[in-house]
Structure formats: structure tokens, C-alpha cells
Amino acid sequence: MIAQEGGKPVRSTRLSYGRQTIDDADIQAVVDCLKSDYLTTGPAVEGFESDLAQYTGTKYAVVFNSGTAALHAACFAAGVKVDDEVITTPITFAASANAVLYCGGKPVFCDIDLATYLIDPAFLSHKITPKTKAIIPVDFMGEVADMDSIMTLAKEQGLVVIEDASHSIGSSFKGRKVGCLADMTVFSFHPVKTITTGEGGAVVTDNRVFFEKLKLFRTHGITRLPDYLHNSALPSWYYEQQALGFNYRMTDIQAALGRSQLKKIEGFIKRRQAIVGAYNSAFSELAGVILPKTADIMETCRHLYVLRIDEGVLKVDRDTIFKALEAENIGVNLHYIPVYRHPYYQSLGYSESECPSAEIYYRTAFTIPLFSGMSDSDVKDVIDGVFKVIEYYRENQNGTV
Ligand SMILES: *Cc1c(COP(=O)(O)O)cnc(C)c1O
Q1: What are the φ and ψ backbone dihedral angles of 257, each rounded to 5 degrees?
Q2: From the CB of 170, is ligand 1 less than 6 Å away?
Q3: 196: Cβ below 6 Å to ligand 1?
Q4: 300: phi > 0 → left, psi -120 to 50 → alpha, else beta; which?
Q5: Which atom of ligand 1 is nearest to the CA of 96?
Q6: pLDDT for 333 beyond 50
Q7: Ligand 1 binding pocket mutation candidate from 88, 91, 96 (most atoms within 8 A of CB)
Q8: Before 117, cis peptide (omega within 30)?
Q9: What confidence tens digit (pLDDT) does each residue in 197-216 have?
């Protein structure tokens, strides 16, 4: 009997859908920083930036105090201004679109491919207008968007591509690592992401002009020694504000944690891949759920594992399944409510009719736990819980809702 109907839950304690993995080396790195001369913008920030550039195979990395700040800075560097349009996917965290609004621009939502849940390149070209400035594809779940088509289209149209890789650090696309696929690539180091700094983010790029703008934006738009003044006779105290930036700096405490986490990323990736492999082979045998079509599993560092209910097989709705899994103490979640559905976006005039595939996705999707610290028995609990609930509702089609 499922727990929702009074049976014993699969687990006695709740398993969350995601969480950080912190070890003694991480703790020591933070303690060492606290005892050092610098708490912010010191050697750890510089070191983390050079580690990130090296890891992703890019020339430049700039770290920020959140992934959202990194997205905002990337939009600024791309030159997004009032009335510019920027195309992104509705199946993402609101920050991907909010960053455009911060710059006075207008997010334009392009529907997803219902097989991959990623922005559909076939629809993308129809969304381009003379006002389009940039595209923000999102590597949802850690699956890399079709960057070949997106970059080709962007080059033809003179658009900047900012890849929101908040989910996909460590993933590759056709043998090329995430970081060197787009004009700028944004990472997030929130605790549920593959590596964490508590709060934090970064932009990596090969473009020197973008790099300079990102650095400027991070500290109020203020620069100490502007390039064009290098040989002037100005005093050493001189600084000037050249743009309206923000205080988006990451602390050295966070960067020290980030450096320590990045050293362990290969292990985190392998563990996530092993869990995804176990889920894939289990759930491909389960009538009633739909798995996303994925690229080569070895190319992908999955951040999220999303299942959809198969409405042709199950007559109960997603919320019934969701509640039943919660009752089994399996920490389910929903990634994401399409951004245009939020009341704020509705107040700006966005409507639901534009993205029919995103609507189907939203009606049927749920996220199950995935993080590198999950034990084999946690993984088994999730598989058992999903089988128990789906099989129950397959046989008891009336549900309770
Ligand atoms: C986590 C995330 C961000 C950035 O979030 P922060 O919490 O600001 O680091 C942006 N986009 C997506 C898709 C995310 O998942």
C-alpha cells in the first residue's frame, strides 16, 4: 500500500532532491582563508578564476556573488539595452529571463523540444526580429542545448550567445567542454548545483572585450587604471566610474570553497552519471513515465533528473503522483514553472499560448533526487518509491484527487 493511502513509506526520513557535498578539505580551505589577510577579492578569487578558465579551456573567467549576477553582467557585456529583445527558454529558473529585464530588455520565450526539454532550434529563427540582440540557451538538467545550430544562427544574424550553463558545468557537447561553446558561458555555484560556493557564479569567455566589461560591471563600473590612461601621468590613487555597475563581487571565503570543490568535480560527475545510469535502466522498464531523450550519458553531467507522467498510460495527474512520492519521503520538485506564467511576467503581458510544448512539459514533469552524496540505498529508495507509486496508480486509475 502506498504511504498516501496509509501504507508504510519507502523511507523513514525525507531524502531531499539536491544538496551539497562538503568534506574536510573544503572546511579546511575556508578556515585557512578566514585566517589569511584577505576575506574578499584576494588570491582565492584570482585562483578560482584561473582554475575555472583552465578547467573549461577558456581564456578568461570572472566570478560573481551569484549565478544571477553573472547572467546580469553577461547581458550588460553583450550590450543588452532598453527595448532590445533576448530569446530564451521558458523552462528555466526565472533568473535567465530576469537578467534581460534588469538591462531594460525584453525576454522572448522560444518553445522547447518535447523530446529533450531544451530550446528548439527549429523555432528559434522565427523569434528573431530586428530588435533581437542575444540568445540565452539554457542547458536544462545539464543536457547541453544544440549549440551548433544556435551558434550558426547567431553568427548569421550577428547575435551574442550567452549560454546559461548553471546546470551543466562538466558537461560536453560533441567532445567540446561547456565553456568554449558560446560567446559567454554562465555558471552557478548554488548548493544544489554540481559544485558550490554557498552563493556564487561565474562567466567564462574567450573574448577580451566581454572580459573587461564583466570585470567593470562587478565593481560598480569603476576601474582603477583604465587602459587608455596607462601611460598618463595621473596619480596612483586615480579611479573612475565608467558605467553603472554593481557590487557583485565574490568573497575569498567563497572562492576558497569553490577551488576546493572544483578539485573534486570529476568524482562528482562520475557519481551523478552512475546514478543517472541506474535511474535510466530502471525507469525505461516502467510503463507510465517518460524519460528525456539524452545525448551520450558520458558527455553529460546531469544536475537534475526529470520524469514526466505518460498521460496515455496513467489517468491520474502529475500532482497526484507528486503528493504520493512526497508521502513516501522522496523529495520531489518541479523544475520549472514556465517563466511567462509567473504573475510578474503575466503583468508584463506574456501569455501561455506561445509555447505549447512547454505547457505539456509543465503539466507532466517532476524532478526526483539527484546529487553526488546520494548513497546506493538512497538511489534504490528512489527507484522503489517511483515504481511503487506509478504501479499503484496504473492499477488504481481513479486516484484520490
Ligand atoms: C541556479 C540557476 C541560476 C542562477 O542562480 P543563482 O542562485 O543566482 O546562482 C540561473 N539559471 C538557472 C537555470 C539556474 O538553475
Answers
A1: -65, -40
A2: no
A3: no
A4: beta
A5: 11
A6: yes
A7: 96
A8: no
A9: 999 999 999 999 999 999 99
Contact criterion met (CB below 8 Å) for 81 and 218: no
**Cα dihedral sign, 247-337-144-183:** negative
> Nearest Cα to 275, choosing from 249, 301, 246?
301
Instruction: Please provide residue 372's backbone torsions phi and psi, each rounded to the nearest 5 degrees.
Output: -70, -20
- E strand residue ranges, 38-98: 60-64, 85-88
Cell of 227: 587602459
In short, whether 95's Cβ falls inside 6 Å of ligand 1 is yes
Residue identifier of the C-alpha nearest atom 6 of ligand 1:
67
Q: Give the number of the atom of ligand 1 that is nearest the alpha carbon of residue 71.
A: 10
Kindly state if the Cβ of 173 falls inside 6 Å of ligand 1: no
pLDDT value, residue 234: 80
Q: Judge if the beta carbon of residue 58 lies within 6 A of ligand 1.
A: no
Asked if residue 190 has its Cβ within 6 Å of ligand 1, the reply is yes
Q: Is 168 in the pocket of ligand 1 (CB under 6 A)?
A: no
Q: Please report where in the chains the cell 558560446 appears, as a residue.
A: 182
Q: What angle do CA 319, 320, 321 make, to 5 degrees?
A: 90
**150: nearest Cα among 130, 175, 128:** 128
The C-alpha cell that represents 338 in the structure block: 514556465
Residue range 243-284, pLDDT digits in tens: 999 999 999 999 999 999 999 999 999 999 999 999 999 999
pLDDT value, residue 329 = 98
